[in-house]
Write a structure and sequence with these properties.
4 strands, 12 helices, two-stranded parallel sheet, two-stranded antiparallel sheet, mainly alpha, single chain
Amino acid sequence: MKTLLHYFRKYWFLAALASIFMVGEVSIDLLQPRLMETIVDQGILGIGNGGVSDLDLVISTGIRMIFIVLAGGACGVLSGVFSNLCGQNYGNALRKAAFRRIMHFSFEQTDDFSTGSLITRITNDVTQVQTLVMQMVRGFVRCLMFFVGGTAALLSMDLSFGVILAITFPLIILHIAFVVWKTNPLFLLLQNSLDRLNAVMQENVAGVRVVKAFVQEEAEEARFAKANQNLVNTQFRVQLLLSAGANLSAGQRQLLTIGRAFLSYPKILILDEATSSVDTRTEQQIQNAMVRLMKDRTSLIIAHRLSTIRDADQIVVMDQGAIIETGTHEELLEKKGSYYKLYMTQFAGNAT
């Protein structure tokens, strides 16, 4: 930590400027509801003026809001510029220092870390630290200002809101602690998976002539695919945990569930109304992916949207728990039975 802070000291002024402009942006964000309150209560409803609207007040306050919003936008842009300058310069210095350190490693130290791991350290890890610095410079100040300012504004309206804060705040802290506790081991696993992938990549690029000489292309492709899949699976598990408890829509939850199902490589796949909560465009993208993912798998799809099942090898139409029709999409349309009627209801005039 001392080493990281040592390289950060050179760019503290950039971080300070980013934080100052962020304070300005948040302060303006907190001021806008008050101005809007003035427009609605005094300008439109005429509260305090005998119920008579005040158009001049609406116009003057509205003009003030426009200039204040422009000032807030400028503060936000400048905060982003200075935080990026701070992060980029810090990452540049850290990456150079890491490379110089690696150049002085002994052969034993290089073997202990592995080439793939060292590549990860000097690229991905430094980038992650760089991103953390940029987020801390802006995000920490922003969250702190919103928390303090928002709490003050809430309590100024009604002190009874403090009870709600007292109840919800500990729950939020416990939720954050739980997610961190569950994801921390996975991040270590994610790091190891990335190291293995980089190691495989480096070995194949450096030894491409050897691989070709012994005709091991397919074996190395399989090795790379396995390392890559391990990385994808670990990343997906981390995303699932980070998304736990988040305000996800029904469609987003369905997408996560579908992804998790396919990543488990099941021999038999059952999808029950898997795309019922997503829009038609997303559904089409999912179906295109499913065509490839369901190859060489036994798949049972339950759906009311006929577009989801029209490419199935066999379609079974059920009514009140009884099978009333079976066949392919084209065969069932030719019968002009229940399936045909349902298809016409969903795609009127487009039967094929």
